[in-house]
Write a structure and sequence with these properties.
It contains 21 helices and 20 strands. It is an alpha/beta fold. The protein folds into 4 domains: about 210 residues, Rossmann fold (3-Layer(aba) Sandwich); about 160 residues, Rossmann fold (3-Layer(aba) Sandwich), CATH 3.40.50; about 55 residues, no CATH class; about 70 residues, Alpha-Beta Plaits. Helix 15 links the parallel strand 12 and strand 13. Helix 3 runs parallel beside helix 4. About 5% of the residues have low confidence. The chain binds adenosine monophosphate. Adenosine monophosphate (AMP) binds next to helix 4.
């Protein structure tokens, strides 16, 4: 692990154990919201943070939370921190993040949300947890049943407060606050500071420090000519989408920015396996390795650099045709810096951002702050790709005809045309030439992902995975038991420990249901579901043999 990287986090006041959890995840330096919020939270101050998803705000509140609650505690296991979030999805994500950051501290984290079996939650609560991440409705259920005691909570986080209010949780928040000790630290994060958010921050925060990440405008001078586009893509399809865009755009030189080292390494490998000349550039490389990577890129031996922001800083590369943001950058500054690598010196540049549907707000935010249009487009389909490839073949053939010098092939064509139709001969020749260009790659259809409307229900969009990758689980509960898709997703994601995004179509019949899951995980999932109940009934999971 790189020492200077860990130092960037310890410099904010974080202990080694916590800082090293961040660097182990490949974070190279704190994001703006982390730099601004962490020192105050470690000081015990309340914080009102304006930050959207994708800015690193989870770590901004979770890292100090872990440090505060890892200090010596009173007798027994009691809930010491409560994080309230608007949706089930977010509860799972935030709990997972806190778990990862607190891995070395052995902190117990429990997500609590509606749709998940209450008995699972009760069992975990009885065993004792340090941090609860909950949606307000379900948290209140437990408080009323007397199964969630909050009198030891020292640290409260209201995450995506504006969304919680939009979803009508104001009263629930009020009731939860009444069950919390007055003496506590509170952090409230929200993408907007609408009057309603300000009002609840007045009620729940004490002399808060306001943290708002100011954006840096583009440096003056000639206007860069950059076409900015964002594609909404669900996470499992991101590398496929990137590959497709690389094929469509055929960049002469491109930088693909990722958030973490791990992501850089993984993506470089994936692209390499798909036949692209990509090289990784991150803070974990020695000077010698870095020089080699850059030399190969400049010489054109590789045409794609996959890099973290830190590694790309001060990069002596004049211009690239394309900048790809594999994730929405964590700040407007990062976005502006990244895309500043293209469209230089009066040349055309293209900046392409891949955003998950829940990050669309961050894209809009960047658009507003930079006052530049980012068009949201759908990822090209396999048909688009084929058309594009055929257009390229056609252009190449026309070039070859213009260049002439085909005499040596004329005889061959004449020979072949004695026995075959001349159009067939030409078509076969084109196919041979075409498959030699970049080999045969198996393409899968990428489902269109819609923007998620703020305030709307944010049920995870069902990912239609290609069906040959999926197999079906049969469970002996259906409509007649009052089961709903959310119950099934909750139980499977929670019990089998898989992401809800991996779950495919769910068919609920009267007396049974069928759930698609990845084929390579079905055996493990069925095994883990053997004793699971939904709504108090055993689900009797097994692999469906029919489909
Ligand atoms: P959030 O805004 O909390 O949803 O975080 C968005 C993403 O940024 C998550 O995938 C985090 O793992 C990642 N992230 C958080 N902090 C950092 C950091 N300092 N450097 C790189 N990635 C980060």
């Amino acid at each position: 692990m790189n020492e200077s990287t860990a130092n960037a986090f310890t410099a904010l006041g974080l202990q080694e154990l916590i800082a090293s959890a961040a660097t182990a995840l490949g974070y190279e330096e704190p994001t703006a919201i982390q730099r601004e919020a962490i020192p105050h939270l470690l000081d015990g101050r309340d914080v009102l943070g304006q930050a959207a998803t994708g800015t690193g705000k989870t770590a901004a509140f979770a890292l100090p939370l872990l440090q505060r609650i890892s200090e010596p505690q009173t007798e027994g296991k009691r809930v010491r921190a409560l994080i309230l979030v608007p949706t089930r999805e977010l509860a799972m994500q935030v709990a997972e993040a806190v778990h990862k950051y607190g891995r070395l501290l052995h902190v117990n984290v429990l997500p609590i949300y509606g749709g998940q079996s209450i008995s699972v939650q009760l069992r975990a609560l009885r065993r004792g947890v340090d941090v609860v991440v909950a949606t307000p409705g379900r948290a209140l259920d437990h408080i009323r049943r007397g199964t969630l005691a909050l009198d030891s909570v020292e640290y409260l986080v209201l995450d995506e407060a504006d969304e919680m209010l939009d979803m009508g949780f104001a009263e629930d928040l009020e009731a939860i606050a009444a069950a919390l000790p007055r003496e506590r630290q509170t952090a409230l994060f929200s993408a907007t500071l609408a009057p309603r958010v300000k009002a609840i921050s007045k009620r729940y925060l004490r002399e808060p420090v306001n943290v708002h990440i100011e954006s840096e405008r583009t440096a003056g001078g000639s206007k860069p000519r950059v076409r900015e586009v964002a594609y909404l893509v669900q996470r499992p399809y991101k590398s496929t989408a990137l590959a497709r865009l690389l094929d469509m755009e055929s960049p002469t030189s491109a930088i693909v920015f990722c958030r973490t080292r791990t992501e850089v390494d993984e993506l470089t490998e994936t692209l390499g396996a798909r036949g692209y000349q990509a090289e990784a550039l991150h803070g974990g490389l020695s000077q010698e390795q870095r020089d080699r990577v850059l030399r190969r890129f400049r010489e054109g031996t590789s045409d794609i650099l996959v890099a973290t922001d830190v590694a790309a800083r001060g990069l002596d590369i004049e211009h690239v045709s394309h900048v790809f943001n594999y994730d929405v950058p964590s700040s407007i500054d990062a976005y502006v810096h990244r895309i500043g690598r293209t469209g230089r010196a009066g040349r055309e540049g293209i900046a392409i951002t891949l955003a998950e549907p829940r990050e669309h707000r961050l894209v809009r935010n960047i658009e507003q702050q930079t006052k530049r249009k980012i068009r949201i487009e759908t990822v090209p389909t396999i048909t688009d790709l084929r058309e594009r490839k055929l257009a390229l073949v056609r252009a190449a053939v026309e070039d070859a005809i213009r260049d002439g010098d085909l005499d040596s092939y004329h005889t061959l064509v004449e020979l072949l045309s004695i026995e075959h139709d001349i159009v067939d001969v030409a078509a076969a020749a084109l196919r041979i030439a075409d498959s030699g260009r970049d080999g045969e790659r198996e393409e899968i259809e990428i489902p269109a992902a819609a923007e998620e409307k703020p305030g709307g229900k944010r049920r995870a969009p069902r990912v239609q995975r290609p069906s040959e990758d999926m197999a079906k689980i049969y469970i002996g509960l259906g409509r007649s038991s009052g089961i709903r898709p959310a119950d099934i997703v909750g139980a499977i994601a929670n019990e089998a420990g898989i992401s809800s995004k991996q779950i495919g179509a769910i068919d609920i019949a009267d007396r049974f249901s069928l759930i698609e899951v990845p084929t390579d995980e079905i055996t493990a999932i069925v095994k883990r579901l053997r004793n699971t109940t939904i709504r108090g009934k055993k689900i009797g999971a097994r692999r469906d043999r029919r489909g």
